[in-house]
Amino acid sequence: MAEHTILITGATGFVGSNLACRFLEQGYSLKLLVRGDGSRAQDRVRRTLSGFIKQAVVEELVNSRIEVIEGDITQKNLGMSLPVYRELSKGVSEIWHCAASVKFEERHRKRIEEQNITGTKHILALTEDLYSGCLHYISSTYVAGNRNGFVKESDLSEEYGFKNPYEESKFKAEQLVRNHVKNNDVKAIIYRPSIIVGDSKTWKTTSLTGIYAVARVLDSIAKKCALGYAQGDVSARVRIPGAKDGNLNLVPIDYVIDAMVAISRKRENLGKIFHIVNPNPPGLPEVCEGISDAVGLRLELTDPHDFAKEPMTTRESLFIRNIKPYLPYLRDRFTFCEDNTRNALRHVAIECPRINKETIVNFIAYCCNTNWGMAE
Predict the structure, then answer these.
(1) Which run of H or E residues covers position 96?
(2) Each residue of 192-217: pLDDT tens digit?
(3) 254, 355 Cβ separation under 8 angstroms
(4) How many CA atoms lie within 13 A of 349 on its CB side?
(5) Could you read off the pLDDT of 244-261 as tens digits, one per residue?
(6) d(CA 321, CA 58)
(7) Please, is 77 exposed, middle or buried when counting C-beta atoms within 10 Å of its C-beta (0-12, 13-18, 19+)?
(8) How does 116-151 read in b/e, with b if 16+ C-beta sit within 10 Å?
(9) pTM of the prediction?
């Protein structure tokens, strides 16, 4: 491997794959820790990267600058034999821990905790045992849990509780990282992106969580009912409970990658926490309008009390049941402080692209036009 080699976990996921491609563009060599046996792990990497890079180039990179390593972050020694484990971090200048479960449902709690908490413990053990470089940990702004209002980059408190096992697991994982850095001679940077959407130029995504999951259910209902979006047509609407003065902090993947990579290159950022967020997030009504225009079925933001006056239709009950994990986010009124991020990016031309109704239409239309086929 080349002198500058980066180890990435979760390289077949949304953030990890975009990050891997960026580092390949910059000339780095990569060690990619991937689940599955040797051949399946290689195939997953090839399939993921071919969504960004020509197949012939992917083959060349796998043979030259990419080392695919079979492993499992939920297992001791990352599921490897001790000799292989000891070789893992040799020549590695950075570790980017991107691997995580993004499921929200309580029924998945055990697996969520295994991946997000236990997995992070095992990566921290690697830094303690064998590695002296920098750890880059991908957290989430939603470690803030159920609180509202102004959230500082230094904040980490469980007093407000959490909406779901995902938030709680990311809180506990970040707590592990912070304590590990405090008690050991480990250099680390923590990044907290908000709700990540597709690329702001191509609209491409490989994730169907968040607003994509909501839009996909709505799209399915529209197709089954053969309903068209018509202004004022009650038969072509689906109501959703939420705060009309709320917002969703949507942030494009290209900005997330640009910001994290730029921050990571400055030694003065070691030991800090960075909110990678949208300073001007779209309001919930604007998000609903964008999804409506893309799907062709009107998504109407409604005060929850209004359902007592006008009960849910069968269609609305079906919709709400299928997007239940996301409903608590429709009550959020967050403002995320991003002082550290602004200071770190002050002298570079990196800004979060504006997200409005038109861009939301484009994000969702991309998935509709590809038949939601980019999901992993």
Answers:
(1) strand 92-97
(2) 999 999 999 999 999 999 999 999 99
(3) no
(4) 0
(5) 999 999 999 999 999 999
(6) 41
(7) middle
(8) bbbbbbbbbbbbeeebebbbbbbbbbbbbbebeeeb
(9) 0.93
